[in-house]
Amino acid sequence: MLGFTLPLQFRCYNYHHQSLPNLTLPKPFYQAPFFIPQPPHRTDPGLRASFPVRSGSVFPEDELDVEVGRLLALLPEEMRRRVSDHPELPQLMEVVMDLGRKPLARFPSGDFVISEYPITVQDIEHATAQVGDFAVDNRAGISRTLHRISAIRNRKGTIIGLTCRVGRAISGSAKLLQDLVQDGASLLLIGPPGVGKTTIIREIARMLANDYKKRVMIVDTSNEIGGDGDIPHAGIGNARRMQVPNSDVQHKVLIEAVENHMPQVIVIDEIGTKLEAMAASTIAQRGIQLVATAHGVTIENLIMNPSLEMLVGGIQSVTLGDEEASRRGVQKTVLERKGPSTFSCGVEIVSKTELRIHRSLEATVDAILSGRFPNVEERKMKSQEQKEILENGPVIDNSLEKNGEILFEDATDGDDDHISQNESYSKFPIELEKDAWEHKLPLHLFCYGILEATVIQGINQLKMNDAAIQLTDNISEANALLALQSKLKKNPRIQAAAKSHDIPIYVTKTSSLEHVTKAIRALVSDHEDGLKDSASTDKIKVLEKIDALEEARMAIENIVIPTGEHVDLLPRSSHILSMQLELARKYHLLAKRIGGESGLHLRILPSHYGTDEVKPSDTSVFDGEFDDFPSSNGSVNGSLNSLDRLPLLPE
Ligand SMILES: Nc1ncnc2c1ncn2[C@@H]1O[C@H](COP(=O)(O)OP(=O)(O)OP(=O)(O)O)[C@@H](O)[C@H]1O
């Protein structure tokens, strides 16, 4: 029988370290000397089906040459030549041009300074003249390519910086999800910016339309899936595409797609508002397969996001009766899922080669809400295998388990054995247990009123590692107290000592071997849970930091810089506020801490250091030092699709 147990804490099952992709395309597909080919005729829909597939792209190499060439054409000639000579050109991710600063090319291995000469107004004008119009989200494209050009404007609206992202259609990119796509699952993909969400859903759209002959309609918010221009890029295969005039009407276009074009599948990049979530849920109710992305790193992020919780069924607070609460062993007010989830499966994209699959999104949400660990299936594409897929072209068959391309790995043991794709397991708890126990063993047990010999016998019966539990005579060293109930009752000093050292007490009614063994089993299990909980708490903290920085980055890139308006972030702990402040500082922006009813939060101000409006000496608003402009490392990379997705709090 248990006396006390370790305090129950909220368990967070997961967080990810985002790893940079480690992929290589088969061989350099672009060679100097540089040339700017004409727009490809092969994007003519009638010719698409006859494309030979020789690489990981759905295009032959010269097609890729053309597309990357069209992005590099934005650069002045000398800079263009330097990028095209770079050995990692096939993996080029972005080109960054900021007025008065040296231009950069971003590769998976790091940033490359393209030129020692800073970017001039003419350079920016040369680049912007070649791209389509910038929409309200400050994004533009290059016709018939998948590249995305994002602008940074000054307060007067003039473009002073460009982030030019290379877009590619990569056929192997959705291989890890092929079985789910084929089964008709509605998939919600989440992941941080730049992790490859758009690339994956583009490939899913192509797969469904071409390989599974489905009527696929893409609702393409900023023309990122189907590329810029009115003729969609061949990367979407036979899928059709509806453009969205501006992100405010995305939900209407979603409904229109269903009502007018009879799709079997709808693909949409970035559901971010409540209206879009509602439209998605309406579509799901009509039995249409949905494939969508949303912002967030884990499923918990969605649960906690008031705009998006609807996607996972909605969350409600329920008050239980006394009896039910004690039966479940929970508090009287609990959180529960309100209704069916819009999507059947959730996919967390950890990196370009690693996914975490929640086969039943509803079960995952229920587990998280009740503090349990959800079943997660981890799928990895080994870089070698990835390379093979890319080199040999896509293998569109059902032999996921047979052909050895996809590994369903249990990262806990580092074993590369293949695990059946149907086998799901809670890897994370196992991982936590292992780590936690290794650090916290042995468990020191203080016994009172029970013979040590009986306790040792009990430990032996549980077949535990000899060193796992050690008996101690010093209560201040103990992790738990095991006592005979009748004896303990008569000794308030022991009770007080246990309380003052904050250790749990386990009591048995008798000192029989059976009862003692049961108690040991219970205390070991609780100890283990407690360790998991504390490890989970650490993970929650990391998750919160990631969220907070991402929130600040989005606010800066999507509101403060382009619109020149200030943004109030969500209340955070002072440690996290300092991290957000540091980020704002890297963007050369001012920020101040503001206290409100719900706690301290950061306000990011539009003024740059050196502008007339606010100077660092204005201490009423200045809360940090000034430094250089942001370095162009990955931490401030990427941008967000829409402005209305930020959680903004009134002051
Ligand atoms: N499997 C892959 N192999 C190589 N490069 C990839 C792969 N997937 C994506 N990329 C590249 O990574 C970059 C980011 O990809 P993508 O735009 O799909 O990310 P995202 O998660 O949709 O980003 P955002 O959230 O900012 O829109 C692009 O340059 C893309 O070509």
Concise overview:
With 651 residues, this protein is an alpha/beta fold. Helix content is 32%, strand content 19%.
- CATH top level label of the largest domain: Alpha Beta
Distance between the termini: 51 Å
Which small compounds were modeled alongside the protein? adenosine-5'-triphosphate
Low-confidence segments: 1-60, 384-439, 609-651
CATH architecture of the largest domain: 3-Layer(aba) Sandwich
Please give a structural write-up.
By secondary structure, the protein is an alpha/beta fold. It has 4 domains: 125 residues, Beta-Lactamase (2-Layer Sandwich), CATH 3.30.450; 209 residues, Rossmann fold (3-Layer(aba) Sandwich); 100 residues, Rossmann fold; 104 residues, Ribosomal Protein S8, Chain: A, domain 1, CATH 3.30.1370. Helices cover 32% and strands 19% of the residues. The chain contains 18 helices and 23 strands. The strands form 5 sheets. It has an 8-stranded mixed beta sheet, with helices on both faces. Helix 14 crosses helix 17. The longest helix has 51 residues. The N terminus and C terminus are likely disordered. The protein binds adenosine-5'-triphosphate (ATP). The site of adenosine-5'-triphosphate has 19 residues, from helix 6.
